[in-house]
Amino acid sequence: MKYAGILYCYNSTYLLCKRRKDVSLGGFWSVPGGQVESGETEPEAAIREFFEETQLSLNIFKLDLVDIFPARNAASQVIGSFYLYQYQGGERYEPILDHEHIDWGYFSRKKIPMPIGSSLVKTIKEVM
Questions:
Q1: Which of 40, 119, 123, 128 could lock onto 44 through a cystine, CB 3.0 to 4.6 A?
Q2: This prediction's pTM
Q3: What pLDDT digit, counting tens, does each position of 105-123 carry?
Q4: 3-state DSSP call for residue 3?
Q5: Which tens digits make up the pLDDT trace of 35-58?
Q6: DSSP annotation string for 69-99
Q7: Peptide bond before 43: cis, by omega within 30 degrees of 0?
Q8: What does the domain layout of the chain look like in residue ranges?
Q9: Residue 37 and residue 4: Cα distance in Å, rounded?
Q10: Shortest CA distance to 19 belongs to which of 68, 53, 59?
C-alpha cells in the first residue's frame, strides 16, 4: 500500500491535523494525506487527500518531494511519500476538517505536538 501526504508550509510553520481516536493512527498529529488509489500518482493522491481533509485546493506543480519512508501498521507494509507545499501569499489558511480529524494547528520545528510519527518528525526537522 502507498500513502502520500503534504507538508503545508506557511511562514516557517507546518499545518498538522490531529486524528480522531477511532480512525487509523487515532490520536496522532499528522499531515493531511492518505492512501494512493489505483490509477493515481503519489502527487495526485496527496493533492486529493489534502483537499478531502482540509477543503483547500492546491496546485500539483508546486509540490516538492521531500521524503519517502517505509512504515508498518497492524494490517500491512506502507510506503509513504511526503511532499512540501510552500504557501506564498497573504493570510494563513484555516482548514475545514473532515470526519477523520478533531483539531489542527500550525507548528514550528521547535514546537511539534505529540503524539506524532517519528518519520514525520524527522522530515519536518530536515526540511526546516
A1: 40
A2: 0.89
A3: 999 999 999 999 888 888 8
A4: strand
A5: 999 999 999 999 999 999 999 999
A6: EEEE-SS-EEEEEEEEEE--SSSPP-----T
A7: no
A8: 2-127
A9: 10
A10: 53
